[in-house]
Amino acid sequence: MRSTIWHVPDGMTSAKAEKEANRQAALFEEKLKTGMALYDGNTTFGEYAEQWVKNHQCAGKTKDGYQELMKRIQPALGHIRLSKLQPHHLEAFYQNLAEKGINQRGNYAISEKLPLLLKAEHLTYDKLAAASGISSFTVSTAVHGKHVSFQTAQKISKALKKPVEAVFTLHKNENPLSANCIMHYHRLISAILSKAEQEQLVVRNVARLAEKPRVIHKEAAYLDDEQAKQFLSLILEEPDIRIKSALLLLLFTGMRREELCGLSWSDLDESSQLVHIYRSSQYRPHMGELEGPTKNPSSVRAIKIPLFVVQTLKEYHAWWTSQQIAFGKEWQGKLQRLFIQENGSPINPDTINYWLEKFLRKHNFPHITPHSLRHTFATLNISNGVDIRTLQSLTGHAQASTLVNTYSHAIKSRQAAACDALEEVLTGNLAAEKQA
User: Fold this and answer.
1) Fewer CB within 10 Å of terminal CB in the chain, N or C?
2) CA distance 155 to 340
């Protein structure tokens, strides 16, 4: 049961008091519906934070990220009363995140014994998947000696009725979380406390007073002119038409990988050589691949691509159509997505990373990510004289300032070239006058 008290101001008539009491009751009921009337002086930060994450309007993947951050925030700060939370509590939490061994992300398990164990137990991938409660694809990944999570290793080992150490070799990451990662925790805590401050549940947002992690700005990883030319020449020799098409689009459009996975054939305008970006595709645990909006309204855009890329996409469409015919009634490509699994289902955006890693290993090319190709697109455009506003319309950034901060290396290079050009104009004239 929850209740609230409203005191009738002195001098208010009975009729007005009744009317205002009804209004206050309606407001209180609305707060109950949204979970915001559950708090009093004994409310803990964890209770309030849980409701904030639940009710906050944001993209599904963003909410997944918040819930992942809460797994560390709750044990450390959740028990503290909201009104008693102090800057030193947050600073101690940030220091703990910076300790060695706290980072679980680099942990992985790998097994060379699984093929023999499956053979001895007469188990197929599907049977082990059913017994483990994981997908057949994940089982296949583990059987082929690739990295899997500790949780996956535990599920497989439990299904085989063996200790996890008897099946897998566990590799633990002893590194701390990066300062940039710790900043994600700080920003979430600050957003939660800002809402509490707005609702007058706390006097102030103590996150603003806490010493924040010091993030060292790093230049975006990108390919320079020569590396980009070499990368392109290797792409053009790629026999896998899916990988070839995906990497060409990333290099010549600078789109995000989620936007790439959201492309449908109707988004291509071959006659105008345009790629239209209207949506993104995201993967969410237990829900699979989901269609969603672009990162921001500015990300809805059209980008022109070279004619030879259009021709490559035509070749890719022929392969795509052959797959559709081969699968017949089993075809799952109703959304007409460009980049698909063998049966036409949309791919997980992580597949783009896998394709790129496979491509880089084959050619012994330096490590880059799909986002590095986005940085390459932006950097090469700036270096070749494209202004920030035009580039913003191509990359879909919400703020031009983001481009200025991220690509300062290329902008400084252009500034230096502009200064050299001015020097040439002015001193060249002086030299000509002296000679005259």
Assistant:
1) N
2) 29
Q: Which CATH class is domain 108-171?
A: mainly alpha
What are the boundaries of each domain within the chain?
108-171, 225-370, 381-435
SS3 of residue 69 by DSSP:
helix
DSSP string, 169-225: EEE---PPPPHHHHHHHHHHHHHHHHHHHHTTSSSS-GGGTSPPP-PPP-PPP---H
Confidence label for 416 from pLDDT (cuts 50, 70 and 90): low
The DSSP line for 75-113 is: HHHTTSBGGG--HHHHHHHHHHHTSTT---TT-EEE-SS
Q: List Cα–Cα distances, 225 to 255, 293, 303, in angstroms.
A: 19, 33, 21
User: Position of tokens 């915001």?
Assistant: 36
DSSP classification of residue 337: B
Q: Is the pLDDT of residue 221 over 60?
A: yes
CA distance 313 to 354: 20
pLDDT digits (tens, 9 = 90+) for 30-63: 766 765 555 667 789 999 999 999 999 887 778 8
CA dihedral 9, 14, 15, 16 (to 10 degrees): 0
The answer regarding whether domain 225-370 maps to CATH 1.10.443.10 reads yes
Q: What is the per-residue pLDDT for 266?
A: 95
Identify the DSSP state of 329.
Answer: G
CA 360 to CA 371: how far, in whole Å? 15
